[in-house]
Design brief:
Helices cover 24% and strands 28% of the residues. With 426 residues, it is an alpha+beta fold. The structure holds flavin-adenine dinucleotide (FAD).
Length: 426
């Protein structure tokens, strides 16, 4: 590492950690090491992500973040540079996103719909008959009464691990000293003595040996292990993150007319599920409150089985929403979210430990914004470590990539009053 550069360690090589690494690689003032427990990047909770890209949120700063993220995914090759052939980078399948809500939500959603429109999101409101006409593969019954929204720009990223590898390859191409220290676990922190207690490095366990990596800046991007890494740093936060167990089913759908038609993603609050209709891996997951309450004491210790009753019930719901669907080769799986318990919003912030930052609590919803979160974290590190600002007293506002919308980073601070809008679409 050259003496003039700021050594940064990122704990975690998921989509968040690799996005931060790419943004630091674009800035010649940093040397970055990712420490990753797995044998390669993108194998943690990111690997299980459904990677749906949509912009409908109820919280204004989340809408802006999602909108900028959408622009990045639409220009993925441009974003990751020429480090890979165009055919080697991951696909963003822009098939649109269809939302179904119970009629009882209409009044409350109207306000959020208006906000999305003000912020530049293209969204169409659909009556039941309009939804039937536009999307004949999806069934919209008159009872229970419901209404729909359609986001034509939305879709999903075909393979979230592949996207993470794209980010890491781009970081390496831009700054060859960027490295991922894999099969290596951060098990401790080093600090200067009290009262300063500035972070000076991390202790890493790898192949049975311990090693200290010096760092002026350490960023926690450990996904569902974020709470444990904060504890290792001696830095619990006022807002707690906690791992959350999520059931889902991968399958092949042998009933749909693949190759003839595109099917939009469907996020269905009437039946409590979402559908990612991909020809290779059809995915259904859940979005009801009762599907989001399995919090885990330990992100490494959970039941990987999914009960048959749940699979049968959700498969029947898919069939109700998509009558031609015929699921085969059902493969029930479990993923883990890293949830900010109070309001399901990320925490993107510095901490009371000088040099220690967090990009955590992505709450099952921020694959879409990860590349932009990388940029925000870089701006935060530059402001505090290079420009001598204190973003606690002088909160950061950044212009978001492509949209140039002003984003108030303090909305995702560790001190915020929890937002009223919780859950994955909060
Ligand atoms: C089932 C599921 C469905 C989702 N669906 C969507 C969706 O449709 N749309 C959307 O936008 N978002 C979605 N998300 C959310 C999104 O995928 C996550 O927010 C994102 O992938 C989190 O990335 P991460 O880098 O923070 O975490 P991770 O990918 O978990 O990366 C953290 C890494 O840190 C490593 N690590 C942890 N502790 C240590 C340590 N001590 N030392 C070294 N390494 C360590 C882990 O091994 C891991 O690889 C979903 C998430 C899940 C789980």
């Amino acid at each position: 590492m050259s003496a003039s550069k700021i050594p940064v360690v990122i704990v975690g090589g998921g989509v968040i950690g690799c996005s931060i690494a790419l943004e630091l690689a674009r800035d010649a003032r940093f040397d970055t090491t990712i420490v990753e427990r797995n044998s390669e990047v993108g194998q943690g909770s990111t690997a299980m992500s459904t990677a749906i890209i949509r912009q409908y949120y109820r919280h204004a700063e989340s809408v802006k973040l999602a909108r900028s993220g959408m622009q990045v995914w639409s220009r993925w090759r441009e974003w990751v540079g020429e480090s890979r052939a165009a055919s080697d980078v991951v696909d963003f399948r822009q098939v649109g996103v269809l939302w179904a809500f119970p009629e009882s939500d209409r009044a409350s959603e109207a306000e959020h719909l208006a906000q999305c429109a003000r912020l530049g999101v293209q969204l169409e409101e659909l009556t039941v008959s309009a939804a039937r006409d536009r999307f004949p593969d999806y069934a919209f019954a008159d009872t229970p009464a419901s209404f729909g929204l359609y986001e034509p720009d939305g879709g999903y990223v075909a393979d979230p691990s592949h996207a993470t590898r794209d980010l890491y390859a781009a970081a390496r191409a831009m700054a060859p000293k960027t490295r991922a220290f894999t099969s290596a676990e951060v098990i401790g922190f080093e600090h200067t003595p009290y009262p300063e207690r500035r972070v000076t490095g991390v202790v890493v366990h790898r192949n049975g040996t311990l090693e200290t990596l010096a760092a002026a800046v350490v960023i926690n991007a450990a996904g569902p292990h974020s709470y444990a890494v904060n504890a290792l740093a001696g830095c619990p936060l006022p807002l707690t993150t906690v791992p959350n167990r999520q059931k889902l089913v991968n399958a092949r759908d042998v009933g749909l007319a693949w190759g003839v038609r595109d099917y939009p993603v469907c996020i269905d609050f009437v039946h409590g599920l979402y559908i990612k209709p991909d020809p290779e891996t059809f995915r259904m997951g859940a979005n009801m409150r009762e599907d989001e309450d399995e919090f885990l004491p330990n992100a490494d210790d959970f039941d990987e089985r999914v009960d048959d009753e749940w699979v049968t019930r959700k498969s029947a719901a898919v069939k109700t929403r998509m009558p031609a669907s015929q699921l085969a080769e059902l493969d029930p799986r479990v993923g883990v979210y890293d949830v900010t318990a109070a309001d399901w919003k990320p925490i993107l912030d510095k901490t009371p430990v000088p040099g220690y930052y967090v990009a955590i609590g992505t709450s099952g919803a921020w694959f879409k914004g990860a590349p932009v979160i990388g940029r925000i974290m870089r701006d935060m590190v530059v402001a505090n470590e290079i420009e001598g600002r204190d973003t606690d007293t002088e909160p950061l506002t950044v212009a978001l990539p492509f949209t140039e919308q002003a984003f108030r980073v303090g909305e995702f601070s560790r001190f915020r009053t929890p937002h009223a809008t919780a859950g994955v679409i909060g």
